Amino acid sequence: MPTVRLGFSPAPAHVRTARLVAVAVARRAGVPEELLDEVRLAVGEACSRAVALHQLYHRKELVDVEMTDGPRFTVRVHDRGPAESRADALPDPVELVAHSEDIVTAEPFPAATVAVGMGLALLTGLVDDLEVTPSPDGTGTSVRMSWPIA
Amino acid sequence: MELSLQTGTVAGRTVLRVTGEIDVYTAPELRQRLLALIERGDGDGAPPPVRHLVIDLSKVEFLDSTGLGVLVGGLKRLRALGGTLVLVCAQARILKIFQITGLDGIFTIVPTEEAAVAAEPAAEDSTGDQSAPPATDR
Question: Where is this region: Disordered (chain B) (predicted)?
């Protein structure tokens, strides 16, 4: 049973709100102060990824964020992207940069997919306990992350 | 505090000073400003187009992967045009993001604006590259 549950329409403007709420709930739950930056960045990345997937696949549903206290502080971010958006392999950002030449010559700045890949790479580098799984109901993915409580 | 962008100069070099949060919401604004600098010129739209740019991230409170994507795009664009990009950042929390993603090996990152000029000493905007805007991509 989540302690706090937040649903937001899949627009970039709301990701900041999700970050602020997550940090406030994490602090209240007793996550050590030095880990709060990590919570802020990780929840932001997970929510940005969900927003990007919803926009890419024209899904209007809310992005769902669940925060749960317990032995650890756990955050789950659910998206409604289709099955093919599931991340089986986590890309290496340096590889992405190296191999995005064709994208870059055509379009001076990397495609959104590069940023989404980088987001996952950042998440894996940042969060010790991270899991990306298909949602139980069969639509979309769920990013689960947890942090210790002091 | 969201995002604020200001252009200035340090030792004749164009500096883009970024304040606030660079995230999925604000990154498009940063991208537009970078494109304008590279295609047209300084903050007032005055030519020549910038080829040797310093981006000062000292007052950035938050940077996510979308922001990293825009910075990478700017770097690649400038390099393709024979230019340079130097980032100014001394904040551990922001530097950590470059380290985690391995992008600290791709960007030149220095602690101060003065050090940025020293980091790419050969590059001078004042010499003006080609007079024409970059109509053809090499």
Answer: 118-138
| Interchain pair A122, B101: CB under 8 A | yes
DSSP conformation class of A107:
S
User: Where do the domains of chain B lie?
Assistant: 3-122
Instruction: Tell me which CATH code domain B3-122 carries.
Output: 3.30.750.24
What CA–CA distance (Å, rounded) separates A22 from A44?
Answer: 9
List the single residue in A15, A37, A114 with the smallest CB-CB distance to B69.
A114
ipTM confidence score: 0.80
CA–CA distance, A23 with A69 (Å, rounded to integer): 13
CA A57 to chain centre: 17
Considering its fold, how many domains does chain A have in total?
1
- Spell out a b/e string for A114-128, using b for 16 or more CB atoms within 10 Å of the CB, else e: bbbbbbbbbbbbbbe
Please report, in tens digits, the pLDDT of each residue of chain A (150 residues total): 789 999 999 999 999 999 999 999 999 999 999 999 999 999 999 999 889 888 888 889 999 999 999 899 999 999 988 755 444 444 455 555 544 444 334 444 444 555 566 777 788 888 999 988 887 777 888 899 999 998
Q: Which of B65, B72, B107, B136 to mutate to test the interface with A (most CBs of A within 10 A)?
A: B65
Contacting residues of B for A77, CB less than 8 Å apart: none
Q: How far B91 CA sits from the closest chain A CA (Å)?
A: 13
- Asked if B65's CB is within 8 angstroms of A51's CB, the reply is no
Its domain, for residue A27, covers: 4-148
Between CA B53 and CA A39 the distance in angstroms is 32
Closest chain B residue by Cα to residue A37: B93
